[in-house]
Write a structure and sequence with these properties.
By secondary structure, the protein is of the alpha+beta class. The protein has a single domain, classed as Trefoil (Trefoil (Acidic Fibroblast Growth Factor, subunit A)). About 15% of the residues lie in helices and about 25% in strands. Strands 1-12-9-8 form a four-stranded antiparallel beta sheet, with no helix packed on it. Strand 10 and strand 11 form a beta hairpin. The protein starts with 6 loop residues before the first helix and ends in a 7-residue tail after the last helix. The relative contact order is 0.20. It holds the Pfam family Kunitz_legume. Keywords: Signal. GO terms for molecular function: endopeptidase inhibitor activity. It comes from Brassica carinata.
């Protein structure tokens, strides 16, 4: 018996991918290169004197789930993340604007809250504030774990949106360091750039001074 060809199936998948990304722009990193799915990037605010984004406790009790905060140290690039599609778009290795994605922290050093995923999510718990925190512990297919990257003013500058608002910041618990929230207040919008992780960035992260290392104690899991 002749086996059915997989070619028509593959063509259908590729056409579906083309339809999903038609009319949308490739997201670019800080150097103007397309952002790749599953590659590692630092998310860094563009209108700030601080560093990149890291997981951080936003409550004393319960300690978990962790929220997301910008480190106050300009020399710290943050903790790497990767982007993935949900549902998966077959046939593309790049991330496009206005398309649902997951955002996930990528780190081997993660001594707390290990029972939770590293996926970003909007806090939809019953105790969530009017402007809920962006937290870790998301589920890839859950609506509150889906984000979109949208273009903003400035070269290779973007904002993150959710189904209910835009990712912004408020002064957080750690010395007022900006804490990520879901908001409808445009004044609080967080504008970011994506910096691809490379050997130089890794070296700059590990070659921190004693003062910088002491400052990172407010992020003990970073």
């Amino acid at each position: 018996m002749k086996k059915p060809s997989v070619t028509p199936f593959l063509i259908t998948l590729l056409l579906a991918a083309a339809v999903c990304t038609h009319g949308k722009e490739q997201v670019k990193d800080s150097n103007g290169n397309p952002v790749k799915r599953a590659a590692k990037y630092f998310i860094q605010p563009v209108k700030s004197n601080g560093g990149g984004l890291v997981p951080a406790a936003i409550n004393v009790l319960p300690f978990c789930p962790l929220g997301i905060t910008q480190t106050l140290l300009p020399s710290q690039p943050g903790l790497p993340v990767s982007f993935g599609y949900e549902p998966v778009i077959v046939g593309t290795d790049y991330i496009y604007t206005s398309t649902s994605i997951n955002i996930e922290f990528r780190s081997e050093i993660w001594p707390v809250c290990n029972e939770l995923s590293k996926l970003w999510a909007v806090d939809v718990s019953s105790s969530a504030a009017k402007e809920p925190a962006i937290i870790i512990g998301g589920e890839s297919t859950a609506p509150n774990s889906l984000f979109k990257i949208e273009e903003a003013t400035g070269a290779h500058t973007y904002k993150l949106t959710t189904s209910s608002g835009t990712v912004g910041t408020i002064p957080g618990a750690w010395l007022g360091a900006p804490q990520l929230i879901d908001t409808n207040d445009e004044a609080k919008t967080l504008f970011v750039k994506f910096v691809k992780v490379n050997d130089d960035a890794t070296k700059s992260t590990t070659a921190t001074s004693r003062v910088e290392k002491l400052g990172l104690r407010m992020f003990p899991f970073y």
